[in-house]
Predict the structure of Amidase.
Amino acid sequence: MKLRERQFRFLDRKESLQLIKTSMFSLTIADAHRLLREKQISPTELVSLYLEQIEQAEPTIRAWVTIEKDRAIERAKELEHKVNQFKTFSQLYGIPYAAKDIIYTKGINTEGGSKALKGFTPDQDATVVQKLSDAGAILLGKTTTTEFANWGGPPETRNPWNLNHTPGGSSSGSAAAMAAGMTLMALGTQTAGSLSRPAAYNGLTVLKATYGRISKAGVIPASWSLDHIGAFTKTVEDTVLVYNEISGPDQHDSSTWTLPKQDLCLREKKDYKIGIVIDEYFKDTDGELQKSIEDAIQVLQNIGFKTISIHLPGSLEAANAAQHIVMKSETAHYHADKYLKEPALFGPYLQQFIKEGLQIKANDYLKAQRIRSIFREQMTELFKDVDLLITPASPTPAPKGISETGSPAYNLPFTNAGVPTLTIPIGYTQINHLPMAMQLVAGPMHEQKLIDAGFLFQKETDWHMKTPEMLR
């Protein structure tokens, strides 16, 4: 249940803080913003609550690489003194957040989960971190990742919903920290499925925006023509608040769109046609998850959305193969110098990945990029017939074990095409109570359509407000 104004009407300061503390696991950014604005809580008090939760949950979850307790408290106190200097009271003012450990943070180690970057401390922030700082958000620390956000070398991070299951990857720590109530928002990245899949496995909401909508400047690339930046949140409403701060053109990233920044808003727009993807490609969907997808479709239909069955372009398989060539080649190019000098600094999976990437010929790389271009064009054409697509966000709920991070197969095509997707919870398994999620897909630059559908869906359901048993 969200914290409402009436709950605080007759409470003194001490009583208000106690109510916030007991309800913090259902707290959203929107809730916290109102509490901060109305001075029911201070940034220092809010940050302290999350630092307390980190202290309690982190030994079990292992989501963090670095926890910047003193820096976060100092920043919160600074904001309290400077609040009157803000031109407007930003909706992220005083909001604590986490950043995946491939995202540059000035004066804080950024090691990418690899011995190859051990002890590296950037002298500047990534653009997304700078934008959040300008908005008054407070960085709590850095979260775990697979080695350089690649598919191998998963960290020891646990899924808060079931400690015996993976939290997904490569944004493992960001998603797990969010699900365990250790932060109000967490930055992650996606090259195949590293935002969508962890969100699905941890009961979170995440928007993977159109390629180029959010700057990658200051983010260690996994594959620069495929990488996307995003943020894990509880709700679509919170996703909008974060996106509106971190999106927009950036002179330091030539891949960002040069169009004026376009903020998203919450609307009750229902006249969209949604394509239900029925390709054989999605045949491996778990039975219980498929039933939840069907139930979610029914909710969308009841809201007023029209649905039709639809197929993805026939070039899908070729485009997937091309994605692997591009990712291997670009990963190898980025790490080549250090790898050739000191290969032992890299884990065995990444060593093999780089080795294979270095063997890819320029002609094969260019051919793969051409195949990707054709697939992008065909995907754009598809959205002339529908406004949105719907698929499961993953083949299964979070797999058992932490030696693998699960399959990104259902996310990869849309990352490859650079089109925006929204992942939102739609239910939980009966036996292990693991989250299940759907993936909504829109045409390039149509994030607003995703927000419209996701916002209305979350008004009709409460899956996104559930919490793991460890938090109850």
The domain at 55-280+282-312+384-471 is CATH 3.90.1300.10 (Amidase signature (AS) enzymes).
